[in-house]
Amino acid sequence: xxxxxxxxxxxxxxxxxxxxxxxxxxxxxxxxxxxxxxxxxxxxxxxxxxxxxxxxxxxxxxxxxxxxxxxxxxxxxxxxxxxxxxxxxxxxxxxxxxxxxxxxxxxxxxxxxxxxxxxxxxxxxxxxxxxxxxxxxxxxxxxxxxxxxxxxxxxxxxxxxxxxxxxxxxxxxxxxxxxxxxxxxxxxxxxxxxxxxxxxxxxxxxxxxxxxxxxxxxx
Length: 219
What we know:
This protein is mostly helical. It contains seven helices and three strands.
């Protein structure tokens, strides 16, 4: 059997008003927004000794009697106890609060700088290869290594047929022949190009014409 919930004794109107006034005095620096929200908070903080509906009425009456201060904030109202002269902050208190504000602003600036660094580190980490990509890259490198070794083994074993001096001479002679022909053709091409580009169309450069003709090599 569930335990019975203890019944809270409700206060009378004057007692409720006094309790709310005392509550607001304790909450001078923490005003609560909105009549209904204020009533809910007060009723809860006073252990429901003042009902929510009674709290709404008391707040409104106290405000109309200028016993508490209230300020409209959109559709809501901020209620708080009246500021008494002896509650005013001294110059020393104001200076201390200014120092605290400056200190907090410096801490905020430091925290924002650390936040930027952490975000940059996070971006760098996200840009690196994942474990799956690293494994795939290692497998590809392993296959490449295996292929290279398979081609090197015959060279290491000496099973490769050596190139004779006669074969080397024939290759050198063939290279010189075709290199000479290539240079001759290049010279002829450049002579023709010089003649063609003596009169260029207006607004067109030799480089643009070379590219349009699809020619390769140096102009």
